[in-house]
TrEMBL record, chain B:
Organism: Myxococcus xanthus
Membrane topology term: Multi-pass membrane protein
Cell compartments where the protein resides: Cell membrane
Name of the protein in its database record: Cation:proton antiporter
Family to which the UniProt record says this protein belongs: Belongs to the CPA3 antiporters (TC 2.A.63) subunit C family.
InterPro entries: CPA3_antiporter_subunitC (IPR050601), NUOK/Mnh_C1-like (IPR039428)
Keyword Transcription regulation: no
GO cellular component: plasma membrane
Keywords: Cell membrane, Membrane, Transmembrane, Transmembrane helix
Major place of residence: membrane
Transmembrane spans: 6-22, 29-49, 75-95
Length: 769, 119
């Protein structure tokens, strides 16, 4: 039950955000942070129970007929992610309260941020694939809003649109994949699916499921070639970048892969695709990071690189690689969150976040500089920080795993790029003797406490965990077991592994990164000349977007050209085509069992109907057509009389009479001569074909006549329940009285319309007088 | 009987659709009336017909015993007839006003006239 409350707390906080921001003004950040802080404490308190092997879970039926339950489960992996989400969330909420203090709609910002937190927490807690998907879409949508938060800027809108298009398309792919998965396993429960993993792997639909799920995970976690939305997402306010676009949301894809790896993992396609895509993303992301001087862009590409590394590790699938994945994910969340918040503070205090214009800030921003230094050392993977622990594990996993030396070499290159990126964003702005910034030195001062407490705490956590890694070891070990099964247990974190090949690779990446940083000017020039990010996926995205717009405008030109005649032809042809399809596929044979018995007076009436219809259509005179219409209505009323429907006959006579009078009234005073027309056979071809198809279908339907059970119900209940002998009347005014009320409403509305139309005319006449 | 009625309904639909394809808005209104009749007869036919035997419970009895005509489609049609009429009344007045404003009942001309009047 507590789990259920935990699930809803962020949503409640989101609902209260605007009110609280009004009430507490500049303290709103601290007050709203109490919600995630409380959650973090609660989740933290669950760790000992989790280590003992208890897995709290909860299942409430939601849509039982569809197999959709409100099912939550808090295993080790969920617990780790939940702690990151709520812990970082607390610090980001506090930070944003100061960072956006003068923003006019801070309350709305908090609302979306907390809604995102709820969605993200839902993803990691859900034990039902569709509940997970719903929360997944909540994060997609709130991310869209937050990226476009400065919606008056073109760039923000463009980036938001791009992020939505890419991640929502991935979401659709994920939905189909999850539904297919549910169909194969027979349950939507995630723990049930994991239990039935062999069924999935043996299923002929395995590959389709894998590719569809990967479509969702890769778009969300910005893997090549879907990574282009993440750098664009940097238009969001910096707290959002720190929270959504480095620490949590972009890891949702990685989380999903980790969650489903017991089901989908361990097969050749899984290993191949994840390893290749992950490695490519890791290396190219690191390379692209070096081509920028904007602090946030460098961090964004470095994040892409890390996400690639995490996916690559999941693809390897060995016990060591899963342990490395879990450890590095945690380390990354800590240092990257710090660096983003630091970048935000630098931007906030100095007015620029272009590293080319920044140096020597450490004297002016001591706390921020200290946090930045610790975090960038962690990013570079230097002891005694937690990043070092994670990086050593990755190198070991690569060397021991199926990827071997080539993969380890690729990782070294990737980390080399990250070292250079860390030096650029975390060290360069603060180092140096001369002070450089947009604002003069005297105007630049340390950020207020609410803006350095977050980065400082995160950086300190990275340092403490590096020194005493056994503190977090049980939690990470639990998460590893949840991903890789019991053979992934036995995680042992130590800061110093001795002199190993992994240490050699670490040194290699440091040398590579150091030299890349030393040669930063030529590297920057070269990469800018290559302009990598505007080729490939970027060009494809632009081309498909403009292609889509061209396609829709040409479709509008063809289909919505304003000609009523053409609309009707298109509608009728489509309708006829669908009917023809139904006839060809299902109703091809000659209808049997249709009554051909007919009485002579009935034939007379039917012929009368057809003749008046033809007359109404072909007559050139409007008056003849109107009279033919009247005759048709009366003949129809006779039919109703013959076949046991006296009420219909009476109504039909009255209404048809009114119709004819109305037509006659309108056209006796019609201001223009009605448009003449000649009957044309080629115009009649399409209507005749559709009419013929309708006849054919009626014959099929009517060949199996049945007295409805509904009819029996009304026949027996009309008198006892409705107190009426005329069953049709009882249906209308008693059993289905609401329909009749609706009908009366339509009639009244139409009457009002008629009245108003006449009135406007009389007013216009008055004006003319 | 269903066979012949089905043919009649098909014919009515054809006539209605034909009218919709014409350019005179008066004829289009006429087509809507034809389509309304066609639809009502379609609902009437598809569940089978019953000669005589209106769904009326004889005085003093509690329930109606077969044979009787199905009351459910009849209730639908009764609603449909009235709604059709409401729709038609509004349409005719609109047509009338449009013709008054623009001096034509040709949908092609109406379109250009309305465009001009907007400018």
């Amino acid at each position: 039950m507590a789990l259920c409350i935990a699930f809803f707390v962020p949503f409640i906080a989101a609902a209260l955000a605007v009110l609280f921001t009004r009430l507490f003004k500049s303290w709103a950040g601290w007050v709203l942070a109490l919600f995630p802080a409380g959650l973090a404490v609660w989740f933290g308190a669950q760790v000992p129970a989790g280590v003992r092997g208890e897995v709290p879970s909860l299942t409430l039926p939601w849509m039982p007929d569809l197999g959709i339950d409100f099912a939550l489960r808090l295993d080790g992996l969920s617990l780790l992610m939940a702690l990151l989400i709520t812990g970082l969330g607390t610090l980001v909420v506090i930070y944003a309260g100061r960072y956006l203090v003068h923003h006019e709609v801070l309350g709305r910002f908090y609302g979306w941020l907390l809604l995102f937190m709820g969605g993200m927490l839902g993803i990691v807690l859900a034990d039902n694939t569709l509940l997970l998907f719903i929360c997944w879409e909540v994060t997609t949508f709130s991310s869209f809003i937050l990226i476009g938060f400065e919606h008056k800027e073109d760039a923000a809108r463009e980036s938001a649109q791009r992020a939505l298009l890419i991640t929502a398309l991935g979401g659709q792919s994920l939905l189909v994949g999850l539904l297919l998965l549910g169909d194969v396993v027979g349950t939507l429960s995630i723990s049930g699916t994991i239990a039935a993993a062999d069924t999935v792997r043996d299923s002929p639909r395995y590959l389709a499921i894998l590719l569809l799920v990967l479509g969702g995970a890769f778009t969300k976690s910005a893997q090549m070639p879907f990574h282009t939305w993440l750098p664009g997402a940097m238009t969001a306010p910096t707290p959002v970048s720190a929270y959504l676009h480095s620490a949590t949301m972009v890891k949702a894809g990685v989380f999903l892969l980790a969650r489903l790896s017991p089901v989908l993992g361990g097969t050749p396609p899984w290993e191949t695709i994840l390893t290749i895509v992950g490695t490519m993303t890791m290396v190219l992301g690191a390379l692209l990071a070096l081509g920028h001087t904007d602090l946030k862009l460098v961090l964004a590409y470095a994040t892409v690189s890390v996400l690639g590394a995490l996916v690559m590790l999941l693809g390897q699938g060995t016990a060591a690689s899963i342990q490395a994945m879990v450890t590095f994910l945690t380390a990354h969340a800590l240092y990257k969150g710090t660096l983003f918040l630091v970048a935000g503070s630098v931007d906030h205090e100095t007015g620029t976040r272009d590293v080319a214009h920044l140096s020597g800030l450490r004297k002016r921003l001591p706390m921020t500089a200290a946090a930045s230094a610790a975090a960038s050392l962690s990013m570079m993977g230097l002891p005694p920080l937690f990043g070092f622990v994670g990086k050593e594990l990755i190198y070991e996993a690569c060397l021991e795993g199926p990827g071997g030396w080539p993969l380890a070499a690729a990782a070294t290159v990737g980390f080399g790029g990250m070292v250079a990126a860390a030096l650029r964003v975390g060290v360069q702005p603060f180092a140096g003797k001369t002070f450089r910034a947009e604002k003069p030195e005297s105007k630049v001062h340390e950020a207020p406490p609410s803006m350095w407490v977050g980065p400082a705490l995160l950086a300190a956590a990275g340092l403490v965990l590096g020194l005493v890694p056994w503190a977090i070891q049980p939690l990470l070990a639990m998460a590893s077991v949840d991903i890789g099964g019991s053979q992934a247990g036995g995680l042992e974190l130590t800061l110093w592994h001795g002199v190993t090949p992994a240490l050699g690779l670490s040194a290699g990446s440091l040398v590579l990164g150091g030299s890349l940083f030393a040669l930063r000017q030529p590297v920057l020039k070269g990469l800018r000349a290559l302009n990598l990010s505007s080729h490939g996926p970027e060009r494809f995205y632009q081309a498909s977007l403009s292609g889509l717009i061209k396609l829709s405008s040409s479709m509008t030109r063809v289909l919505q050209n304003g000609s009523l005649h053409q609309y009707i032809v298109v509608t009728l042809a489509t309708f006829g085509g669908l009917l023809a399809l139904a006839v060809v596929l299902r109703l091809g044979e000659w209808p049997r069992g249709v009554s051909k018995y007919v009485l002579s007076h009935e034939v007379v009436v039917l012929v009368g109907i057809l003749v008046s219809a033809v007359l109404a259509v072909v007559s050139r005179s409007a008056l003849t057509s109107i009279l033919a219409l009247g005759a048709l209505g009366l003949a129809e009323a006779l039919l109703y009389v013959f076949f046991g429907a006296p009420d219909l006959a009476m109504t039909q006579v009255v209404v048809q009479t009114l119709t004819v009078i109305l037509f006659a009234l309108v056209f006796s005073r019609f201001p223009v001569q009605p448009h003449e027309h000649r009957f044309r056979w080629w115009t009649a071809a399409l209507p005749l074909a559709v009419g013929g198809l309708i006849t054919w279908i009626i014959l099929h339907v009517a060949s199996t006549p049945s007295h409805t059970r509904l009819a029996d119900f009304y026949a027996t209940q009309s008198v006892p329940a409705g107190k009426g002998l005329n069953i049709v009347n009882v249906i209308l005014v008693d059993f289905r009285a609401f329909d009749t009320l609706g009908e009366a409403t339509v009639l009244a509305t139409s009457g009002l319309g008629v009245f108003l139309l006449f009135r406007t005319r009389s007013q216009r006449k008055k004006r003319q007088v | 009987m269903e066979l012949f009625l089905a043919i009649t309904v098909g014919g009515l639909f054809a006539a209605g659709f034909y009218c919709l394809m014409l350019h005179s808005i008066v004829r289009i209104a006429l087509g809507l009336v034809l389509l309304g009749s066609a639809t009502n007869l379609l609902i009437f036919t598809i569940n089978g017909l019953q000669r005589g035997f209106a769904p009326l419970v004889p005085e003093g009895q509690e329930a109606l015993s077969p044979p009787y005509a199905d009351p459910v489609p009849q209730a639908f049609i009764l609603t449909a007839i009235v709604i059709n009429f409401g729709l038609l009344a509004l349409l005719l007045v609109l047509v009338h006003r449009a013709a008054q404003e623009t001096g034509t009942d040709d949908t092609r001309a109406l379109r250009t006239e309305l465009k001009d009047s907007k400018q």
